[in-house]
């Protein structure tokens, strides 16, 4: 136990060092372009962009923890945001609730197909993403939907402190709740056990099927919530607004210490991964990196994250 505890401390130190190095590099590169990365406005923009990613990453962390993957979070977020923006003039704030409910239903469908039909999660969620993308194009005709309710925009963009938007508070609440569920909840222990060894988890009496469905339901719900908040943050809903979330959340969760094969990690370290990924994205926009180079760099970040978790997994197996 002492060895495992010491190993965990070492991982956290490495993660914090990685975040610190990212922030230093961001400031240096921004300064070379005559910009201060840590000015109040940019800090606020960073919090706005990272908050939605953190919310969705919390759900993704649970799915990865059980040894699965959810490739539909971006499409769910886009669908939830588009439907909410579409219905907002007709039903008001209930449109936001409906957006979150859409995420929950999509997550339950993903989980049920994965558990009861035994279809690999990568195929189930890829199919869901494809179907939702088509549905969004049908609903919107490929056009953006503007948010015409100022109160909804203020609900997300208003500041509680200088440079700290309300959206950051919502993300923090979700983060604390999911971490608490993973650490203290019965289902959280079941998620960890399933990722470690599903057969042993069944032998010990864990409700494996129910826990798996709940993991996908939580991922879908938080993707729906993220999409609704992203719509309010942007002031418009577009057919591609959530596309970045799938890659960003997988990279953030893995960089945060969750093994891509499951059984180690969780939402706790994901906040560090989110800050690293969001800082890099914000920096590239700030210094006007060409979009195709941004995609290349984001892909490389994911590859590096997977390499890190692969080496970490080997360390656990060897020691």
Description:
The chain has 319 residues and is mostly helical. The protein has one domain. Helix content is 78%, strand content 3%. The chain has 13 helices and four strands. Strands 1-4 form a two-stranded antiparallel sheet. It has a two-stranded antiparallel ribbon with strand order 2-3. The model is unreliable at 1-6 (pLDDT under 50).
In short:
The chain is mostly helical.
- Molecular shape: globular
Strand order of the largest sheet: 1-4
Q: Runs with pLDDT <50, length 5+?
A: 1-6
Total number of distinct structural domains: 1
- What does the main sheet amount to? 2 strands, antiparallel
If you compute it from the alpha carbons, what radius of gyration comes out, rounded to the nearest whole angstrom? 19 Å
Could you spell the SSE succession in H and E letters? HHHHHEHEEHHHHEHHH
Instruction: Work out the helicity level.
Output: over 70%
> Ends: how far apart?
12 Å
Strand percentage = under 5%
Number of helices: 13
What is the averaged pLDDT score? 86
Number of strands: 4
The SS-based structural class is mainly alpha
Membrane topology: Multi-pass membrane protein
Keywords: Cell inner membrane, Cell membrane, Membrane, Transmembrane, Transmembrane helix, Transport
Transmembrane segments: 46-66, 94-115, 122-140, 160-181, 213-232, 244-261, 296-312
GO cellular component, one term: plasma membrane
């Amino acid at each position: 136990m002492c060895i495992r505890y010491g190993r965990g401390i070492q991982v956290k130190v490495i993660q914090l060092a990685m975040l610190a190095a990212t922030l230093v590099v961001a400031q240096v590169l921004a300064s070379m372009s005559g910009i201060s990365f840590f000015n109040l406005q940019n800090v606020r923009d960073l919090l706005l962009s990272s908050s939605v990613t953190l919310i969705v990453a919390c759900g993704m962390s649970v799915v990865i923890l059980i040894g699965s993957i959810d490739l539909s979070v971006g499409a769910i977020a886009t669908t939830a945001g588009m439907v909410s923006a579409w219905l907002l003039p007709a039903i008001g704030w209930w449109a936001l609730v409906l957006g979150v409910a859409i995420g929950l239903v999509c997550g339950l469908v993903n989980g049920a197909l994965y558990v009861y039909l035994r279809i690999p999660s990568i195929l189930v969620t890829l199919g869901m993403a494809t179907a939702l993308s088509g549905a969004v194009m049908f609903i919107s005709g490929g056009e953006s939907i503007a948010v015409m309710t100022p109160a909804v925009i203020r609900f997300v963009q208003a500041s509680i402190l200088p440079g700290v938007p309300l959206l950051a508070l919502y993300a923090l609440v979700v983060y604390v709740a999911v971490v608490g569920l993973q650490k203290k909840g019965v289902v959280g222990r079941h998620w960890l056990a399933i990722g470690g060894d599903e057969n042993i988890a069944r032998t010990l009496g864990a409700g494996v099927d129910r826990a798996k469905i709940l993991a996908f339901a939580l991922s879908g719900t938080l993707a729906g919530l993220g999409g609704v908040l992203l719509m309010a943050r942007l002031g418009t809903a577009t057919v591609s607004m959530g596309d970045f979330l799938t890659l960003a959340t997988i990279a953030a969760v893995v960089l945060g210490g969750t093994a891509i094969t499951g059984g180690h990690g969780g939402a706790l370290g994901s906040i560090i991964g989110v800050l690293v990924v969001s800082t890099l994205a914000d920096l590239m926009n700030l210094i006007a990196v060409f979009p195709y180079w941004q995609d290349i760099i984001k892909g490389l970040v994911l590859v590096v994250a997977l390499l890190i978790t692969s080496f970490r997994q080997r360390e656990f197996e060897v020691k």
